[in-house]
Amino acid sequence: MQAALSGYSDLPMRRLARRYGAAYTLNEVVLDKLVLQKGKWQREILSVAPDDHPVGGQLMGADPEVFAPAAFAMAQAGYDVIDINFGCPVRKVLGRCRGGFLLSQPEIALQIVRRVHDAVGATHPVTVKMRRGTDGSREAEANFFEILDGAFEIGVSAVTVHGRTVEQRYVGPSTWAFLERVKRHVGDRLIFGSGDLFTAEACVRMIRETGVDAVTIARGCIGNPWIFQECRALWRGGELPAPPTIAEQRAAIEFHWAETVAAHGQAMAGKIMRKFGIKYAEHHPCGRAVRDAFIAVKTSDDFPRVLEEWYSPAVDWPSVTRREGCGDLIAAGAE
């Protein structure tokens, strides 16, 4: 599944993920207050395309009173699942008592879960995204399990668990042993795993080693939509598909570009796609130079020029291979 990625998982990225095999995608996390505040952001959040299913709407906030009407509005707009974010580790979010901060406040967190479930649970699955605690302390772990057990008792359909603490943010390894422990603890209830999923091999290994029911791919799918079809191939017992050729890379980027122009307009498309281009460059045999070219993009006219220069079918590009145990791709024989 494609995780909710703030600033990334908009409609174009979700369509791209589905095109390459994602079974389920989530919209980027949104503030509950923005869902209820009339204006451009509300219209954008509550606009669900007919082909954008199944899709989850992820909510973040601090006030149980606001969460419920926001969840109801998103369910009415067409989101198939309402997901509650108790995992964001960004300092600005924590400072406003949102996201991962709520893992330190089990009572408030469970009030939010109950209000949301009461508002939409009869018609829509409610899920929760968590990290394994605010930090590595026993108190943080106890709070985690209090929220986990309480959420399932209220009636949530699944919980996504990221193997890092909030304090870790994105530093250090994700603790997969904790995911295995959580899955054994909840039995038949659904647990989705997250953390350090940058290759298809890692995704399949997480499921087999920890017993989680599914995995949500976050940073590992930015500029790498092929990871979903690679996961499907490995899970079915097949071999890992060959790395995407230059032609295949260009086809994915062109699709992503066209969808971004359609969704956000020509003037904004270059700025939005620049950050994706930097990640797509990791798959190119001349990755560093391509990355620099995408970094230099300043207008929407610049982006197609980078494609023409670095993804031209007329050039005899070096072959592409994977580094062992890593999602990066390099030219065959290169350092």
Quick recap of the structure?
The chain has helices at residues 11-19, 32-36, 40-45, 64-77, 91-95, 106-120, 138-154, 176-186, 200-210, 226-235, 246-264, 266-280, 287-295, 302-310, and strands spanning 25-26, 30-31, 55-60, 81-86, 126-131, 158-162, 190-194, 214-215, 320-322, 329-331. It is of the alpha/beta class.
Tags for this model:
2 domains; disordered C terminus; 335 residues; 46% helix; alpha/beta; 14 helices; TIM Barrel
Describe this structure in words.
With 335 residues, the chain is an alpha/beta fold. The protein has two domains: 11-235, TIM Barrel; 246-331, no CATH class. It is 46% helix and 12% strand. The chain has 14 helices and ten strands. It has helices spanning 11-19, 32-36, 40-45, 64-77, 91-95, 106-120, 138-154, 176-186, 200-210, 226-235, 246-264, 266-280, 287-295, 302-310, and strands at 25-26, 30-31, 55-60, 81-86, 126-131, 158-162, 190-194, 214-215, 320-322, 329-331. The strands form two sheets. Strands 1, 2, 3, 4, 5, 6, 7 and 8 form an eight-stranded parallel β-sheet that branches. A two-stranded antiparallel ribbon has the order 9-10. Strand 9 (320-322) and strand 10 (329-331) form a beta hairpin. Helix 1 (11-19) runs antiparallel to helix 11, helix 4 (64-77) runs parallel beside helix 6 and helix 6 runs parallel beside helix 7. The longest helix has 19 residues, at 246-264. Residues 323-335 have low confidence and may be disordered.
